[in-house]
Amino acid sequence: MRKYEYISNEMRRRIREEYYSADQPIPDELSLAKEFDCSRMTMKRALDILVSEGMLYRKRGHGTFIIKSSIHDLPVSVTDRENLGLTKLLANKQIESSIIQFDVEFPSNEVAKRLSIEKNVPVYHIIRLRKVEGEPYVIEKTYMPSNLISELNEEVLHGSVYRHITETLKLTIAGSHRKIRADKPTELDRKYLECAYDDPVLEVEQVAFLNTGEPFEYSFARHRYDKFVFSSVHIRK
Amino acid sequence: MRKYEYISNEMRRRIREEYYSADQPIPDELSLAKEFDCSRMTMKRALDILVSEGMLYRKRGHGTFIIKSSIHDLPVSVTDRENLGLTKLLANKQIESSIIQFDVEFPSNEVAKRLSIEKNVPVYHIIRLRKVEGEPYVIEKTYMPSNLISELNEEVLHGSVYRHITETLKLTIAGSHRKIRADKPTELDRKYLECAYDDPVLEVEQVAFLNTGEPFEYSFARHRYDKFVFSSVHIRK
DNA sequence: CAGTGGTCTAGACCACTAC
DNA sequence: TAGTGGTCTAGACCACTGT
């Protein structure tokens, strides 16, 4: 494991277990670096992670402090830093995926543009309903280029596409761009999410990339408004 | 200006102006470091920023590449990295703020907890309607501790509270935690946002912190669903 | 003033990729 | 194997804070 990761994990554990008093600054970077037998840069990098998680804040010339409200807050909802797919995110819940549509087609202009592919590259067009503990949770409409994501079949779609990508195809997911908006329910939403005419849906539009920079997924996830909150931590630089 | 910021800006400009071919890796870090007369670490840090913006991706052992779709995408909507307040965000638009409520009160348990203050510390309780180019845009319900954010008055509320905080009070905003959800419109929403019974709203709940780690704002911004999209870039580490 | 974090350097070695 | 990015070091100086 990388040194800065190990140190970061250890410091996170200490803070959660209140090893350090939340009323005082934690030890300064040089002392911690000595304790962990690393350079100050590496110590700094380890603490940077906790700062970006909203667990610590720094005051130049003064010290590094614990953000009290962070200690007992465990992030239960989907965050900004995660990009896992439902299966891993709600690993302890019973998840069911039913396939509403599973086609191969030529991409529209919009889809081709988002996936950075030519219009003659076939794309999978998948619509799935995901249920959590038997309750409808989200409808996902997904486009994936067939040349990149191969061997997709109904068995995979009933389970986890993300696991297929990372474990079977040995690809590495690098990140995504997302847009989040509220919308009125479509007929499809009402039917499958079992929502009323005046129940809003929360839509997450996403383009996800591999570590090669190639977009492998363009998707719209439409969530029941009463079952999904998108969380985000923003730290100004 | 910091060296890595300058370099980062220059590289962003070059990429946008297609100084580098998008089909090839950009020059390696050591060459760029020589060109910019900096160490490789500093060059790396400058490029890190562009990677986190979704403009570049790296392939270890291979090089650093431009994400094509990023070149012409200008971020028009609110992003994850911004925390500015409307006034600065839409600086070229005509923004009008009307005050629906402006009170001082003792905080509820929930508000006291979010702002990390005692229940005997008075908080401002503000409701504003923000209009952009004459059209209703968002209703903001905001709680701010009166001991931290002082000298708040109607004049400030008609303009920019963020400017008041940064310029008049000389405080530094460090970041925020946000939750985004869809909701049905309340009576207040319908009245001021001029939306129908079945028009959803997009709610952004936010706790914003100063660089001292003290929360200074707990707010709910309720947006018309047809006028607001929340954007987010997520890069896996 | 002493002590803190912010930036930057000039190197080193390692892990991975393409050839 | 050569070239790339990823990590890490041991220092340096600077900017800012509180006393």
From TrEMBL, chains A, B:
Residues 1-69 form the HTH gntR-type domain. InterPro entries: Bact_HTH_transcr_reg, Chorismate_lyase_/UTRA_dom_sf, Tscrpt_reg_HTH_GntR, UTRA, WH-like_DNA-bd_sf, WH_DNA-bd_sf. SMART domains: HTH_GNTR (SM00345), UTRA (SM00866). Keywords: DNA-binding, Repressor, Transcription, Transcription regulation. GO terms for molecular function: DNA binding; DNA-binding transcription factor activity. It comes from Bacillus sonorensis L12. The keyword Transmembrane helix does not apply. This is HTH-type transcriptional regulator GmuR. Signal peptide: none annotated. Pfam families: GntR, UTRA.
